[in-house]
């Protein structure tokens, strides 16, 4: 089997109906999603494709563990079929999912951690927002964010570097509006994102502090698979090291371009997007078309997916 990377989706992967086919087709996926709901204390299925699903994307405390549960269910079915990730990583929320997948935390504690993360982010970042910026040089954009933050006294930062021509800014709505004007004046474009808050920005300072205390109550163990930390941009296997890195994650920039380039440098050229979307597959095609990337979300029958590897 090739050296395979498991790459876990972020919160933006949610839409009503995610995981439904998987749940009804594979017994192990059903069991995992039901178990996640029991840990979370609510009927998860209702929020994935039931009567509450239309509201889920606006409820970070529900959307985050929901996406993680579906992603881990995909990973479990792949394991049943003989495919496991030699190394895993994730985009924003996906990094928490990758930590659970690689065995640094037991499933119940891991899902509980993700729920706690969502609750704190929902509370802390709700006053701000995020915007994708297309076709603006990243260094120039970071300089403008610093200038606007100083001018308005309301922070805005480059939160995600998703592809060479796509970054995401996060911060106050007033500052984001000024950055949108700057982008338009420089032949770029700003696209507001419906994500529920100002993730990976100073708006989450208090939430990050509280989350750090919570992480100290959990016992992170040695991993059963390698983890690529997008915070530190290195491979980690020590539970203590993973916990210390993850303490920084809520405020850290998600440099997805650097992560993908680093993995290629380590010899990984086959990547599987694990989760209910193909967002990350499309980003990697922009970063390096030479990397083979597939998304499990594009296959109803994962047996067919395995045959195509």
Q: Could you explain how this protein is built, in words?
A:
- This protein is an alpha/beta fold.
- It has 2 domains: 4-124 and 203-307, Malonyl-Coenzyme A Acyl Carrier Protein, domain 2, CATH 3.40.366.10; 129-195, Malonyl-CoA ACP transacylase, ACP-binding (Alpha-Beta Plaits, 2-Layer Sandwich), CATH 3.30.70.
- It is built from 14 helices and 11 strands.
- A hairpin with a 2-residue loop joins strand 4 and strand 5.
- The longest helix is centred in the first third of the chain and has 21 residues, at 60-80.
Question: Secondary-structure map with pairings?
Answer:
Elements: E1 4-8, H1 20-25, H2 27-40, H3 44-48, H4 53-56, H5 60-80, E2 87-90, H6 93-101, H7 107-124, E3 129-134, H8 138-152, E4 156-163, E5 166-171, H9 173-185, E6 189-193, H10 205-215, E7 226-229, E8 234-236, H11 239-249, E9 254-255, H12 256-265, E10 270-274, H13 279-287, E11 292-295, H14 302-307
Parallel strand pairs: 1-2, 1-10, 2-7, 4-9, 10-11
Antiparallel strand pairs: 3-5, 3-6, 4-5, 7-8
Helix pairs in contact: 2-5, 2-7, 5-6, 5-7, 6-7, 7-10, 8-9, 10-11
